[in-house]
Amino acid sequence: MESINLIDSFQEFKDFKNIDRPTVISVLEEVFRSMLRKRFGTDENCDVIVNPDNGDLEIWRTRTVMEDGFSEDDDLEIELADVAKIDPDLEVGDDFIEQITLESFGRRAILAARQTLVSKILELEKDEIFKNYKDRVGEIVTGEVYQVWKKETLVLDDDGNELILPKTEQIPADYFKKGDSVRAVVDKVEMLNSNPKIIISRTAPAFLQRLFELEVPEIFDGLITIKKIVREPGERAKVAVESYDDRIDPVGACVGMKGSRIHGIVRELRNENIDVINFTNNISLYIQRALSPAKITSIKLDDETMRAAVYLKPDQVSLAIGRGGHNIKLAGKLTGYEIDVYRESSEEEEDVDLEEFSDEIDGWIIDEFKKIGLDTAKSVIALTVADLVKRTDLEEETVEEVLGILRSEFE
């Protein structure tokens, strides 16, 4: 029977897409009511009954029995002479109830209903995926890499839903191939041309936060709070934590015994260096901790311009700045202050290695000085511009610029 085929196909579709039963019944009933309206002009006098257990369908139509010649609307009324052929016991004013079989609609109507059914289910499925993931923004999801493109990677979740991992949301060291398992955080969910687009990210601070919640029970339980996270994905991250229980060391709890807790996070983030910092409202102390592992001598704050002048011994400057400037950049983001680093100067200050100026002077210029045995700032300053030009392959303008940089170190 066509009716059985239609319902069976619907049941298979419903089970595969995992749409809840009440929605199934509602969609099915609406499809058949639409068929009734097309055929009879109205469905007000029709009852559509769907058995929620097995999907069986019954359609009943009720019309009022009228005297012969007094029926004005055949869709709502039926004449006594016509009823007598079917049920002679009925009288004028009674309700004539008849069952409508799906086969009576014809093959074309049934095929159209099937198409409508598929279309409605697809729309429902898209809405369901959108609503589900809209509520999961900020949560970690695990999926399998299905396809890798130049600008993005397609990931399928456990239900076969498509998740997009853009190249910009991947850690630089990430490399995926089909079949790989990948973890990321749901970053953004939007509807694009009636299709849900789910963007996941491995570079968002929220991803690192969720990893800490998974690895550190005290964070998950709320005993330790993550105040702020800043990241340079794949390079370095700084995490400010605070404990509401004096008996709990927040930094120690996050790192774990011999780094046991943080090692798993570091591996997931492709060996990203993670500094866990104890949060404090004391800005000077907070900046000092944020610039770890460098040891600061003194700090001068300007709260109006939100700038901090940090003074360090020469051997601590490179530690404060960090490789590629990541350490000082992240410290500024974490504390909200623009940090200026100064080498501490004094009359008795020791000489400074030229390598300490690598952030201001090109490496090939430093090498030129080293070739003639000048490897410290004071050894260069001790000579005149003419001597330096004569003994190196550097131009006078370059030498004067270098001397200006080196002299400012001792002023």
SSE blueprint and pairings:
Layout: H1 2-17, H2 21-40, E1 46-50, E2 57-66, E3 77-79, H3 80-84, E4 95-99, H4 107-134, E5 140-148, E6 152-156, E7 162-166, E8 181-192, E9 195-201, H5 205-215, H6 217-220, E10 224-232, E11 236-243, H7 250-255, H8 260-268, E12 273-278, H9 283-290, E13 296-302, E14 307-312, H10 314-321, H11 326-335, E15 338-343, H12 363-371, H13 377-381, H14 385-391, H15 396-410
Parallel strand pairs: 2-3, 11-12, 14-15
Antiparallel strand pairs: 1-2, 2-4, 5-6, 5-8, 6-7, 8-9, 10-11, 13-14
Helix pairs in contact: 1-4, 2-4, 5-8, 9-11, 14-15
Produce a short descriptive summary.
The protein is α+β, with helices and mostly antiparallel strands and 411 residues long.
